[in-house]
Amino acid sequence: MMDALAYAVAMAAANAAAATPPGGGDLAHYQGQIVSWDEASGLNSVRVNGAIVSNLRVIRGGIGLAYQPGDTVLIEKRMSQWYILGNVGAPGAGAANQIQSALVAASEATGSTSFTDLATVGPSVTVYIGSSRRALVLVSAYIVATGTASSGTALGGRMSPQVSGASTIAADNTLSASLAAVTDPSGFAGAGVTATFLRLYTAADGLNVGMNTFTSKYNSRLSSPTCAFASRNLTVIPF
């Protein structure tokens, strides 16, 4: 008759075998599919060869991980320990997932009170947005009001990204690097500031999976005096 300790050992071995996908030995690699992923804790479950494996260790990289159910991942098994090595992406569909940045140095002005292009369009970058549907976007520029206005009038302008391609997101006053200066009795001319704007764009903003082009657009608070923008930079970090 099997004693209690032997029985417990046998049951533990049986349970481990039931939770282990077929195939592999001391070192094996699999292609798995994310079933669940908790962004805050990293708790997870992954389907591997038809079996569900829970709470695999994760090889971390980049500025953040955001696996989604259905993502294809590379799995490594070393003895009894399981690891998620990373996403599997095809060329043209997420294999790159790179930071993109562009700069337009020219100082150019607009008197348009709605968002528009300057004489030199951009800067503009194209990135692939993966299943996380997230990108950190940074815009900056040296913004200058080109003339004077009556006392108490707000001068300046805004630079905001527009997203096209897989997504359609308009430039917006609330999502912009901006200069807003109220004139004093002596007037206001030629003063400027280097302004920046940093925001996480997500699915809630309408950011979709696929190739997305971010292009900087500009407006002026007044049609006259106009507002000029120089050293215009746009950086997009998908993750």
Tell me the layout of helices and strands.
Elements lengths: L3 H15 L8 E11 L6 E5 L2 E4 L2 E2 L13 E7 L2 E7 L12 E5 L3 E3 L13 E6 L5 E11 L8 E12 L11 E6 L9 E10 L8 E11 L6 E12 L1
Parallel strand pairs: 4-6
Antiparallel strand pairs: 1-2, 1-5, 2-3, 5-6, 7-15, 8-15, 9-14, 10-13, 10-15, 11-12, 11-14
What does this molecule look like?
Mean pLDDT is 82; it is low at 5-18 and 182-188. A hairpin with a 2-residue loop joins strand 5 (72-78) and strand 6 (81-87). It is elongated and about 75 Å long. The strands form three sheets. Strands 3-2-1-5-6-4 form a six-stranded mixed sheet, with no helix packed on it. It contains one helix and 15 strands. With 239 residues, it is mainly beta. It has one helix at 4-18; strands at residues 27-37, 44-48, 51-54, 57-58, 72-78, 81-87, 100-104, 108-110, 124-129, 135-145, 154-165, 177-182, 192-201, 210-220, 227-238. 6% of the residues lie in helices and 47% in strands.
Q: Brief overview, please?
A:
Residues 1-18 form the signal peptide. Helices cover 6% and strands 47% of the residues. It is elongated, with a radius of gyration of 26 Å.
